[in-house]
């Protein structure tokens, strides 16, 4: 959505109407035992008796469900909605977002059908709609719901602040430490090699995996490492997630396109001398022919995964769940065998850095519209509903796991997912649109078949995550006209450096161009001002 387009839509809109929910009166057959008072004590203690008894219609625009393109069923076929409505004394009208969620939301706004509750998949979009007058501040309301903020880690709450105000609450919780270092332990053992713990060891193992016939087929068809080049052309920090070379940069304590704060000052790693060293190391890997040459055409996770399944690469960055049976079956089917893949700690770099990735930045947000605030009782009921979603322990299994005795069971108080192959999951796939409340550490939700191995993998990964309260918030500045050109230039130059199309001897000229032509210092000044405004920097 272009900013001017959104502003025009919002300026046309008088914030008066709400979406009327067409709800039937079907009885809730799946409600947990907790009452609404127990679930939302903050609301019931402060609301007037007539407000607590009144049934409100609450509209919710959902962009954070996990099956946004799956139509929601009628209320009679939706026991989770029945539970929600009964426990919160409300009629719920939930509209799903999807790929064109901005267009749908703008249409609601221009039609005077402004939702009471709105969620956003990213902070930047939430800020734009807040600035345009859609979202309200929650600071005063939260005083009446003191238990709600306690449901979130402080690091997730902080990004909900903008210009000194709380504009929303954390929505879906991202999983940290998903992608880690994997090594083919079968090859390692055959070649009598040790797990690499530093860059030189890493390069040596990669060379052996490439040239010493680790799979024993007598062919020169293996590689030590595989990476990918996402569609945005970035070797470093990218919205596409870890791509392989990111972790090489982290060994040197730096990351292209990553903005950090050191000693109270903003730094950009694109010009850091250590970045030059990391680029040289990557170039050495490519020149040594230990990197699968397909990396320049691997632009999504599926293509990267296929390399692991085929069993022709020895070291890669991939998902923590690759030891799960569904994944090992893909390895068997694609490569004819299942290598002993082992997840390892990141090698320690020359400056003592041992970083895998950054901790997740809380992107998604759920908040109230200013329209909902026109009715104090409705606003409180909407907040009561949000508190219910994130704090009600009795409702959680239904929200996160679906329908009792259909998609999950409970034995001695412990929930367990039912094998999806025993029922037609497509029939209840819509249930995932309530599951955004699931905890990132919920092993029941993820349904690990080998929990000991998979949980151990994530424990390794989360031990090497760097704090991150800066990215991607600093890229949300629309006042920087050179932002995209600067990013494109840096990406192109780094790609040229590692492939030899541009000699690293020209590094200083590259830095000067970033500073002079692309106004990098001006960007740093803007980043500093933005972080000061957000309270991250003093």
Describe it for me?
Residues 1-20 form the signal peptide. It comes from Paenibacillus pectinilyticus. Keywords: Signal. This is ABC transporter substrate-binding protein. By secondary structure, this protein is of the alpha/beta class. 38% of the residues lie in helices and 13% in strands. The strands form six sheets. A five-stranded mixed sheet has the order 2-1-3-14-6. Strands 8-11-7-12 form a four-stranded mixed sheet. Helix 1 (3-12) packs parallel to helix 6, helix 12 (245-251) crosses helix 13 and helix 14 (301-310) packs across helix 15. The longest helix is centred in the last third of the chain and has 17 residues, at 483-499. Residues 1-31 and 33-47 have low confidence and may be disordered.
The 3D shape can be described as globular
Determine the number of helices (DSSP H or I, runs of at least 4 residues). 22
Largest sheet: 5 strands, mixed
- The parts where pLDDT drops under 50 for at least 5 residues are 1-31, 33-47
Q: Give the CATH superfamily of the largest domain.
A: Periplasmic binding protein-like II
CATH architecture of the largest domain: 3-Layer(aba) Sandwich
Residue-averaged pLDDT? 89
The separation of the N and C termini measures 33 Å
Number of domains: 2
Helix content estimate: 25-40%
The helix/strand class is alpha/beta
- CATH class (first level) name of the largest domain: Alpha Beta
Strand content bin? 5-15%
Q: What strand line-up does the widest sheet have?
A: 2-1-3-14-6
Q: Count all strands and give the number.
A: 17
Protein name: ABC transporter substrate-binding protein
Keywords: Signal
InterPro entries: Bact_solute-bd_prot1 (IPR050490)
Signal peptide: 1-20
